[in-house]
Design a protein that fits this description.
The structure holds 3 protein chains of 3 kinds. Chain A is mostly helical. Chain A has a single domain, classed as Cytochrome C Oxidase, Chain A (Up-down Bundle), CATH 1.20.210.10. Chain A has 20 helices and 4 strands. In chain A, the strands form 2 sheets. A two-stranded antiparallel ribbon of chain A has the order 1-2. In chain B, helix 3 packs antiparallel against helix 6, helix 4 packs antiparallel against helix 5 and helix 5 packs antiparallel against helix 6. Chain B is elongated. Chain B is mostly helical. Chain C is of the alpha+beta class. In chain C, a hairpin with a 3-residue loop joins strand 6 and strand 7. Classes of the chains: A mainly alpha, B mainly alpha, C alpha+beta. Chains in contact: A-B, A-C. At the A-C interface, helix 3, helix 8, helix 9, helix 10 and helix 11 of A face helix 2, helix 3, strand 7 and strand 9 of C.
């Protein structure tokens, strides 16, 4: 037992961040990475709208424009919003279920580094001969044949493969955490909605991402080894890629939106001072949406030519999703009904979410009608629809979540005045940008066009849309300023700045590394609120104060990801270099790190009760 | 938490689930296998969609040597049985037996892998390369993915046998053995499907090649 | 049953179309909101039906939303705790069942129209056209009429046209918004779709699936002619295909010489020449050059001098032609007329 350290290893600065396995720090790392890629994706979006501000503009060349749209979509979905979602999940879910840690702290860190380095790999393509230019959906044969696409597409394939692996193991980690690590009394039907939606999202990740993995393998084999999966001249079939991509891609949409549903449920409930209306039906609706999410992928393929039977079946299955989604909207409204509604910034975003997302849902139902979709498909109507869902739904939800949980993560409140400016500029800018796009699509503007001809009545809509971007950019800048202001502020947020209801607000802000000095006993839905109503100051502990076991930090997750990062370049340049040696070396290095992890058991370290007392922390 | 002080104490009945870490590992691995099922499901679906697209190259009927495949199947299924014996020995806390059965498992796995490599080598000589046709691409990818899993499993279990010589059977090592056993069963099950879908259906089904 | 549907949607979509025209809904013959054929009309009917239902739902949500936010906002000095309501089964069942009913209202016409649009028509009932998409142009072949053309699709008005669409390289999508929705052109596969233009006229077609650098410029035109004019066109095209004009005069003769030397490898006139580029049999009568610019001497010359400048990434090489060669070619190409 001599190898047990009883003190936290002393690590600071960059070394601390590179080796941390603390879920709260990993959450912050995810937020930093997500924020960085959000800026990249945002700049790409601004260039796109600049090019489309008037007909036949020449700000951006045709080829570059295709790179911009591809990277904007890929970056925003895989590298910006997914990490922010994972950031919030990491920071909050263990606290909400009363756990000291996640189930696999090491794997958790590995998941982050894979996602971050995969994203970095993808983005280095800008400097190495051009970014991918085949759309984020990368339809074959455009993507599968070197005749039609550049090396950029190899960066897309390898970058997403590595990032996707990180997401997958992150999903498994949260499933096990939520199943196995709940505090005493925290039954499934007492879990906060954010935890529930994180649970369902993780399950979707588990069953959706392997399909993407396989699809990317096919694409890589076609491109690098000359395989024929998508080569019609050798018997390949391009529709297979579409199926695989959307079998992953549609659940991916729900992977994104469900956590936002969870956040809205928490925020609306807290700021109306009421318990969530119809909690059980909300849980049921979340599960149902997740389940149906796997049944509807072909609605992205109505114009592929699958025939009327497949089209109508998938169309009707898609319409059915409107039912659980409608349940959610009405439950939120009824949660607000009769409450004392406080319009904090978090709640403004949550409340702004409701009409915006409803519009996105409505156009979603309209798109589910196959014959009508023949007109909408691949037009700006679709662009408008999914931005209403992903920006108006998910990003509003994430902003709500960030304003809400910021004090819990950093110990400081974001400034409310700036927050309101942020909300209104972003909200107005968003609707200006995307509302006209519905009509542009119906008026005959296909998506992914780098320009349009004058005299087609498309000028006005595009101009308004481009102007709206200013509002969204301004809102984002205000948010960045707000973060700085909050960091400089001297005022501590305190344990429970919002008079909130769930377990994370029972502990200090920011949470100590062991989260709960004593594991709490959960006695009802909205665990903290239950205690408040019973007149208690905090949670009742479920165990005596004792020594707390913590996992040791490790540099291996970073090194393992680095191995795959290098291997990625090895595969991309295998053709040019004429050798696979780099790819093999990278993978071998990762395997070696895995071996080291297996051979040397991590016994962790302990935090003793006197240290807990010293830090002045009580349960 | 319990991991550290249980090392020297008597092992419980199901040592792989004695600690929270162990329980997490086992559950996490089951979930991982769920993801693997989707992975292989996608590979199978693609193979089924493309298996008749021979593009003038050799077809399944012309190519497959069922004798090799039957031997490979026999080896792999036997190794599944020996890995069960290893897990049973684990529950009886008999480290020597665990190691012995796992060594046999690894040897059988190596035999399987050798036959598979021979088989691929043979097909390449029969003019079926990765780039020959959509059938060949999907065949090599599906069967190769499985072969890669077997190879990884062999390395993994070998590593476990070696480290157990030093560490012994504890609540830390027990989940590792158990999980490796799960993995090995999983790739056996996948092989059963490959045998059925790729080989048996390949011999009887498919379009006749003119 | 079908006739009742047809009557209903025709009435409704006509009213809606009128309303939309008045409020500005895009350029005539381009917009999906101003349908010019039965397919686009049925689709607009579904669009109007679903948006009407959805706007109704949205209004209900918005009324509750506005009421709740105003009525239950926290007042200054307000204390106490609102009543903690667990849920309400009646309400929850209500907002589960009503959406179901609305979905059924949408699903029934959806199925009916989806199957109607998926019908296939043989060559007695419809003109057959094979469409092949290329980076970045469209090839149209009329197998029954022995005619092959490019970039400008000619169809008879008031008659169904059955399209068989495929691609020579990557996925494109064949879309004529005013006549009906789109269908993907999949390399290695053939999709079918029927469309009809009610009135003679010129309609705008587009590529709707990202297909490379000049995806945005892959436009084409549809000329719907009176049935007799269409037959006449087809007859003359067929004659020109079988026996393309072998002579040209003046500068055009020079142009013909250059064409025979440099262009014929990819471009056919009539049945002579390659198939890599658009067939130019009736080029002199086309309204657009490269599918996007007016077909006049200046734009054609620009295109011939530097094709990549006009349509980035297209497969036509820069032949480094001298100015006099360009004007000779322009003269010749503009002399390629079939119907006059």
């Amino acid at each position: 037992m001599s190898d047990h350290t009883s003190h936290a290893p002393n690590r600071s600065g960059l070394w601390d961040w590179l080796t941390t396995v603390d879920h709260k720090k990993i959450g912050i790392l995810y937020l930093i990475a997500g924020g960085f890629f959000f800026i990249l994706g945002g700049v790409e979006a601004m260039l796109i709208r600049l090019q489309l501000i008037y007909p036949e503009a020449k700000f951006v060349a045709a080829g570059t424009f295709n790179e911009l749209i591809t990277m904007h979509g890929t970056t925003m979905i895989f590298l910006a919003v997914m990490p922010v979602i994972f950031g919030l999940m990491n920071a909050i879910v263990p606290l909400q279920i009363g756990a000291r840690d996640v189930a696999f702290p090491f794997v958790n860190a590995l998941g982050f580094w894979l996602a971050a380095l995969g994203g970095l790999l993808l983005n280095t393509s800008w400097f190495l001969g051009g970014a991918p230019d085949v759309g984020w959906t990368a339809y074959a044969t455009l993507s599968s044949n070197h005749k039609f696409s550049t090396l950029g597409t190899d960066f897309y394939v390898l970058g997403l493969q590595i990032a996707g692996l990180g997401t997958l193991i992150g999903g498994i980690n949260f499933l096990v955490t939520i199943i196995n690590m709940r505090a005493p009394g925290m039954t499934f039907m007492r879990m906060p909605l954010f935890t529930w939606s994180s649970f369902v999202t993780s399950a979707l990740i588990l069953f959706a991402f392997p399909a993407l993995t396989v699809g990317l393998v096919f694409l890589m084999f076609d491109r690098i080894f000359g395989a024929n999966f998508f080569n019609p001249d050798a018997g390949g079939n391009i529709v297979i890629w579409e199926h695989i991509f959307w079998i992953f891609g549609h659940p991916e949409v729900y992977i994104l939106i469900l956590p936002a549903f969870g956040i809205i449920s928490e925020v609306v409930s807290t700021f109306s001072k009421k318990r969530l209306f119809g909690y059980s039906s909300m849980v049921f609706a979340t599960i149902l949406i997740g389940f149906l999410g796997f049944m509807v992928w072909a609605h992205h393929m109505f114009t592929t030519g699958l025939g009327p039977i497949a089209n109508t079946l998938f169309g009707i299955a898609t319409m059915l999703i409107a039912v659980p989604t409608g349940i959610k909207i009405f439950n939120w409204l009824l949660t607000l009904w009769g409450g004392h509604i406080r319009f904090t910034t978090a709640n403004l975003f949550a409340v702004g979410f409701i009409p915006t997302f409803t519009i996105g849902g409505m156009t979603g139902v309209m798109l589910a009608v196959p014959p009508a979709d023949y007109q909408y498909h691949d037009s700006y109507f679709v662009v408008a629809h999914f931005h209403y869902v992903i920006v108006g739904g998910l990003v509003f939800g994430l902003f709500a979540g960030l304003y809400y949980w910021w004090p819990k993560m950093f110990g400081k409140l974001l400034n409310e005045t700036l927050g309101k400016w942020h909300f209104w500029t972003f909200f107005i800018g968003f609707h200006l940008t995307f509302f006209p796009q519905h009509f542009l699509g119906l008026m005959g503007m296909p998506r992914r066009v780098f320009t349009y001809l004058p005299g087609q009545n498309l000028e006005m809509g595009n101009l308004i849309s481009s102007i709206g971007v200013i509002g969204m950019a301004l809102g984002s800048i205000i948010f960045a300023i707000n973060m700085v202001v909050a960091a400089k502020s001297k005022k501590a947020a305190g344990n429970d700045p919002w008079d909130a209801r769930t377990l994370e607000w029972a502990i200090p802000s920011p949470a100590p590394e062991y989260n709960f000095a004593q594991t709490p006993l959960v006695r009802g839905l909205d665990a903290l609120w239950t205690e408040k109503m019973a007149g208690n100051k905090g949670m009742t502990p479920a165990e005596p104060l004792g020594s707390i076991h913590m996992p040791s930090p490790s540099f291996l997750p970073f090194l393992m990801s680095l191995g795959l990062f290098v291997a990625g370049y090895g595969f991309i340049y295998a053709g040019q270099w004429g050798t696979y040696i780099v790819a093999i070396a990278g993978i071998a290095f990762t395997l070696l790190c895995m071996l080291l992890r297996s051979l040397y058991d991590d016994h962790g370290y302990h935090i003793e009760p006197d240290e807990i007392e010293e830090k002045g922390v009580k349960a | 938490m319990a991991a550290d002080h249980a090392v020297n104490t008597v092992l419980p009945d199901e040592p792989e689930k004695a600690t929270l870490e162990g329980k997490n590992k086992v559950l996490g691995f089951w979930l991982f296998l769920g993801g693997e099922t989707v992975l292989f499901g996608t590979l199978f679906a693609t193979f089924i969609a493309l298996r008749d697209q021979v593009n003038g190259g050799p077809s399944a009927q012309e190519l497959f040597d069922m004798k090799i495949v039957a031997w490979a199947t026999f080896l792999l299924l036997t190794s599944s049985l020996t890995s069960v014996f290893a897990t049973m020995a684990l529950h009886k806390h008999n480290l020597k037996a665990v190691q012995g059965w796992l060594v046999i498992t690894v040897l059988l796995g190596l035999g399987f892998l050798g036959l598979e490599i021979y088989e691929f080598y043979h097909y390449v000589h029969e003019e079926l390369g990765m780039t020959t046709s959509a059938f060949s691409s999907s065949f090599y990818t599906l069967v190769g993915f499985h072969g890669g899993h077997v190879a990884f499993g062999i390395c993994w279990i070998t590593g476990l046998i070696i480290q157990s010589m030093k560490k012994g059977l504890t609540v830390v090592t027990a989940p590792k053995f158990y999980v490796a056993g799960l993995y090995w069963h999983f790739i056996d099950v996948v092989w059963v499907f490959i045998f059925t879908v790729v080989y048996l259906m390949g011999m009887i089904g498919g379009k006749a090649v003119a | 049953m079908k006739s009742r549907w047809q009557l209903n949607w025709r009435l409704l979509s006509m009213v809606m179309a009128l309303a939309l025209v008045l409020t500005g809904c895009g350029r005539e013959n381009l917009s999906a909101l101003v349908p010019k054929g039965p397919v686009a009309e049925q689709q607009l009917f579904l669009m109007v039906l679903t948006s009407a239902i959805m706007i109704g739902v949205f209004l209900i949500v918005m009324i509750i939303f506005a009421y709740v936010l105003i009525r239950y906002r926290q007042r200054p000095g307000q204390t106490g705790i609102p009543k903690q309501v667990e849920g309400n089964h009646k309400l929850e069942i209500l907002w589960t069942v009503i959406p179901f009913l609305l979905l059924i209202v949408m699903a029934v016409p959806t199925v009916a129209i989806a199957f109607d649009l998926a019908k296939e028509y043989n060559n007695k009932e419809a003109v057959q056209v094979n469409v092949t998409a290329h980076q970045f142009w469209w090839e149209f072949e009329y197998p029954d009429l022995g005619v092959r053309t490019a970039q400008e699709l000619v169809i008879p008005a008031g008659k169904k046209v059955q399209f068989h669409v495929t691609s020579a390289d990557v996925i494109h999508a064949f879309w004529i918004p005013a006549l009906g929705g789109k269908i993907d052109t999949n390399p290695g596969l053939t999709n079918k779709i029927w469309l009809e233009a009610k009135e003679p006229g010129t309609y705008y077609g587009k590529c709707a699936e990202l297909c490379g650098a000049s995806h945005a410029l892959m436009d084409f035109k549809v000329q719907a002619l009176e049935a007799s004019a269409f037959d006449d066109w087809a007859k003359k095209m067929k004659a020109a295909t079988e026996a393309p004009a072998a002579t040209a005069t003046g500068t055009a003769a020079q142009g013909r010489e250059i064409f025979q030397k440099s262009c014929i490898g990819c471009h056919a006139i009539g049945s002579e020449g390659g198939k890599l580029g658009p067939n130019l049999t009736n080029f002199g009568e086309r309204k657009l050059v490269a599918g996007i610019k007016p077909n006049d001497a200046q734009h054609l010359a620009e295109w011939l001098k530097n094709p990549q400048e006009v349509k980035p990434g297209n497969t036509m090489p820069n032949l480094n032609l001298q100015d006099d060669q360009v004007s000779a070619l322009v003269e010749y190409l503009h002399s390629l007329k079939v119907t006059q």
